Amino acid sequence: MAAMLDMVDIAELKKLVIMGLNWAMLAGSCLMKLPQINNILKAGSVVGLSETFVINDCMAGLLFVYYNVLSGHPFMSWGENVIVGLQNAIIVLLYWHYSPQLSKAPRFLGAAAFVLGSIAVLIFGLPNAAVSALGAAPIVLGNGSKVPQIWKNMVQKHTGTMAAVSDPQRLTV
């Protein structure tokens, strides 16, 4: 056993373990919002969801991706946020689809402005202070977005099509 430990390069073993954990987080992120998407599709409804919550949750995740891209952090340390961000975008689109009473033009105009702004930020970058603010924005948006959802749940006395798995799963991914 001692001879075997002498052959193992501890630094390389640590790198291997970290890489395995990163891949596990990336794989786990593929399942992060699927329960929510599934609930919406099965119900054919977004009853119980707050539009403010789903939009801000989506923006928070994407802003964190932009922060990491602009900061030059390795993809494996934040890549799961790309997958969760795409799933959040699907939830936003499903929300709009299953809410025929909502005016779509201003929402799609806002989404287009966000996409164009995102492209500009990713291509041209931001000053360092703004990049730092971009890193903090998801904390404010992500946590702040939960307040309207909590309020809606209290008023309705139910969670509607909210998935119980998504938020607790965030603690592991």
TrEMBL record:
<keyword id="KW-0813">Transport</keyword>
<dbReference type="Pfam" id="PF04193">
    <property type="entry name" value="PQ-loop"/>
</dbReference>
<dbReference type="GO" id="GO:0016020">
    <property type="term" value="C:membrane"/>
</dbReference>
<keyword id="KW-0812">Transmembrane</keyword>
<feature type="transmembrane region" description="Helical">
    <location>
        <begin position="16"/>
        <end position="34"/>
    </location>
</feature>
<keyword id="KW-1133">Transmembrane helix</keyword>
<feature type="transmembrane region" description="Helical">
    <location>
        <begin position="75"/>
        <end position="96"/>
    </location>
</feature>
<dbReference type="InterPro" id="IPR016817">
    <property type="entry name" value="MannP-dilichol_defect-1"/>
</dbReference>
<protein>
    <submittedName>
        <fullName>Mpdu1 protein</fullName>
    </submittedName>
</protein>
<feature type="transmembrane region" description="Helical">
    <location>
        <begin position="46"/>
        <end position="69"/>
    </location>
</feature>
<dbReference type="InterPro" id="IPR006603">
    <property type="entry name" value="PQ-loop_rpt"/>
</dbReference>
<feature type="transmembrane region" description="Helical">
    <location>
        <begin position="108"/>
        <end position="126"/>
    </location>
</feature>
<keyword id="KW-0677">Repeat</keyword>
<comment type="similarity">
    <text>Belongs to the MPDU1 (TC 2.A.43.3) family.</text>
</comment>
<keyword id="KW-0472">Membrane</keyword>
